[in-house]
Model the fold of this input.
Amino acid sequence: MKIIFIGSGNVATHLATAFKQAGHQIKQVYSLNHHNAELLAKQVEAEAINNLQQITDDADIFIISIKDDAIESVAAELAIRKKLIVHTSGATPLQTILKYTAQAGVFYPLQTFSKAKEVDFKNVPLCIEGANAEITEQLIELAQSISDKVFHVSSDQRKVLHLSAVFACNFPNYLYYVAQQLLAQHNLDFDLVRPLIMETAEKVQEQLPQAVQTGPAIRNDVKTMDAHLALLGNNTALVQLYEMLSQAIIKMGADGHSFE
Amino acid sequence: MKIIFIGSGNVATHLATAFKQAGHQIKQVYSLNHHNAELLAKQVEAEAINNLQQITDDADIFIISIKDDAIESVAAELAIRKKLIVHTSGATPLQTILKYTAQAGVFYPLQTFSKAKEVDFKNVPLCIEGANAEITEQLIELAQSISDKVFHVSSDQRKVLHLSAVFACNFPNYLYYVAQQLLAQHNLDFDLVRPLIMETAEKVQEQLPQAVQTGPAIRNDVKTMDAHLALLGNNTALVQLYEMLSQAIIKMGADGHSFE
Done:
């Protein structure tokens, strides 16, 4: 397909690169930040533009990959082009584009991207939604050209997915930070827990988290938990966090498989 | 070395297997649960015993790998044997053994073990402490026979390490559980977030967590956070958890590199 990217951030960069590698043409990359647009455009042999008026008609699809708040106004401006318009946002409904054009869709890659680290797109779940069956099919085909994990996900489901991703990614990363800071305070290297972090993530690739929960809370080992709380001392934020998570794990253990 | 294992749980099983593979002799495996003792003993060609009186004198070291609360009484009983005694607990000081014998040490593998999943011991950090320099050296040598990541860690440091491991492993696993439950409630498969979980762990193998934090909190994206809270609705425990972690991430972003 002939693709135009609106945006040149992490998601746009990784997606555009994957499409290019799969044989698609990236026609243009639009960004208000001309430097970023040029960086990405160069990588994928596209034209960098910083004005929506410069958009070519020689394209099949616009992929909007910018801040959630900015999606609607760009979609409104692009609608007159009569092309398929999709966004890549987990938190934005299809409706945000559908308001302006019937040729609307969502192309949400469920992964955490950083410019520094390459991602194997074959393993990135792509969550697709189209305004009608034909668009859905077209997007699924496009998605399958770069990933083996393509899912049809409604706007309501995508909201939950986005929330789940916060619990599965953003919050664990913060807890890694806490671990790293506690170690640093005692002249211990973060390398000491890096293999543990990997193993914890690997365990749930085959099994469910509840089945592999370990640590003092799931054993209801009050003595160890008290020792940990004492060690956290007057860091009230961490004490609260430790208590809340430990209580939740104790409850998970007691409830068996239910979840309120 | 000639090794006797006291305990036949996950840690004992993985350690004994690694020692056996490295060419050490596992002489005996003691466990009150004779069935477990026999299972492990068979695997490592050792004798299974369920009475400390049956312990042979043809051994160099006792490795106590049982519940923290039970370590002291076993150490007290074993002290008369005049052999090196170590425990594998992150939460127990060296002193617990040192009270009874000067030939005391700690051999703490910092990893999460489950019977179902094999672990490559070469990558497991082993935290060593000896009652004196000679014992420390002997234990480091033993550790290096199975792992490339051997650290000399004091009892005080080990306490912090154990606490950090809770933040790096046990708490993230609970958050995976929350993600899985939210998805299940909306007929979405946990497979959707499994790659995200892996990538999040992989990112911090090279970088520090603070540098790779993503999500609505670090962007201070109040609209998305409010939408997530609305979605969590009347699940007050999860609302509290979401708010507490988001506030902490916002604070981390604002503080730069400091940590109270």
Q: What stands out?
A: Chain B has a mean pLDDT of 94.
